[in-house]
Input
Amino acid sequence: MAAHLRLADLRHDLGCETLFSIAALDVPPGQFTVLTGPSGSGKTTLLHLLAGLLQPKAGSIRWDDADLARLPEAARDRWRRRRAGLVFQDFHLIPELSPVDNVLVPAWLGAFRAGRHRARAQELLARFGVPERARVAVLSRGEQQRVALARALLMQPAVIFADEPTASLDSASGATVGHVLLALARDEGRSVIAASHDPALIALADRRLHLMRGQPVEVA
Ligand SMILES: Nc1ncnc2c1ncn2[C@@H]1O[C@H](COP(=O)(O)OP(=O)(O)OP(=O)(O)O)[C@@H](O)[C@H]1O
Output
């Protein structure tokens, strides 16, 4: 359940400007990596490239043997369903469904029997302190953020991408989420890559990559 990321000669353009030009980047499994950088520096775009939601202009994005830069969209979607869990900045929850049914969406999409995953979905929601409600629409933004995180973890993915996972949380909930992300990497050998402006989350990470002028710079 581990995945090793290797980027080579990655280039991604926005119109006629180059947003990224990354000669090489190696992210072994078992690390909690945080992407930092000013607003607009490309953190979300890089997460989307690493998750195969976008294709780069050039270069390779290898997760073990799968080069997402070369795979057609359907194969990238398949890779993501099997290997990745995503927490988007705007959560992408289904407002009319309950929290637990939202968490079960990856099981439905993967054509796995959701009944078998219900207990895990409930356990994840309890771990993150999300109240049981009939509809996600009535939850606070912070509660919705934790539902999105539980959904990302349901299928025990090798890779977790999280865009600003603590942005809507108070410091106590943010610390819980941060320690869960750290444990997923350190104790379970998963790859966790988050984008964040949150100093507490950034301080927890194993590795900090600061995006500056299209380059990820290692920060101690
Ligand atoms: N679909 C798009 N079309 C055109 N430009 C885009 C698109 N998506 C992002 N951009 C531009 O790419 C740049 C990087 O955006 P991105 O959202 O990746 O930055 P970010 O570092 O995540 O910012 P923030 O911290 O504010 O979330 C910005 O200049 C943004 O305007």
